Amino acid sequence: MDKLTTLSLLDVMSDLFSDELSIGVSNQEEYIYFRPSKRIDLKIKPGDPIKQGTLAHKAITTEQKVSEFIERDVFGVPYHGMAVPIHHNETVEGCVLAISPALTEGKSVITVKTSDGWKPIPFNEVIYLEVKERKTHVIAEQIAGSHNNTLQEFEYSLPKESFIRCHRSFIANVNQIKHIFPDTHSTFVLEMTNGDKVPVSQSYSSYFRKLLGF
């Protein structure tokens, strides 16, 4: 696979992940690819050498996966880094690096835009999120509003034990599900606590059943 094809493949693979995730690939000596996230920029460029003591260097020299938490004072935001060595014919030829922001435990609300301002909504009061007319709408117990984040970004930031992506246009709070009804083609319809109906699409149905255990 030539260089152009390899870089094109890496770009496509990066699109599979959230914009919150930085992805890097290196050989034994330098980075050959790096896509920074919108929140953390490690200032790495293709051609930059692998510096001693970094996650990539540790993964290559130890020939093992390395995972570390980096404190806020390094780049202004706490993040979690992971590097995995690339083996070929029992030889380490480089590594893949992934950098993700550390979720802050203090954040427990979604601040939505309403008709007269902004309103913080506690996670437990959020019933579901829906993308409609190119906006993300947050439906809660007492209020509804919109947010600029995409559902993909919310998938990353919301507590995974409570919020499940069930459709390309919906994320549901499992604690706000009242009933689950079967639908055609092995899919489901959720009746939420406020009476709204939320679909579970076929592509998410098996994942949904596994997480809810039925």
| Whole-number mean pLDDT | 85
Name the overall outline.
Answer: elongated
Radius of gyration: 21 Å
H and E order: HEEHEHEEEEEEEHEEEEEH
Describe the overall structure:
The chain has 214 residues and is α+β, with helices and mostly antiparallel strands. Helix content is 20%, strand content 42%. The chain contains 5 helices and 15 strands. A hairpin with a 2-residue loop joins strand 8 (126-132) and strand 9. The longest helix has 12 residues, at 3-14. The mean pLDDT is 85.
What distinguishing features does this structure have?
five-stranded antiparallel sheet, 214 residues, alpha+beta, single chain, 15 strands, 5 helices, 20% helix
Brief characterization of the structure:
The protein contains five helices and 15 strands.
Describe the secondary structure blueprint for this structure.
Blueprint lengths: L2 H12 L7 E6 L3 E5 L19 H8 L3 E5 L1 H4 L3 E10 L2 E11 L7 E6 L2 E6 L3 E7 L2 E6 L3 E4 L3 H7 L5 E5 L2 E4 L3 E6 L5 E5 L4 E4 L1 H11 L2
Antiparallel strand pairs: 1-2, 1-5, 3-4, 4-5, 6-7, 8-9, 8-12, 9-10, 11-12, 13-14, 14-15
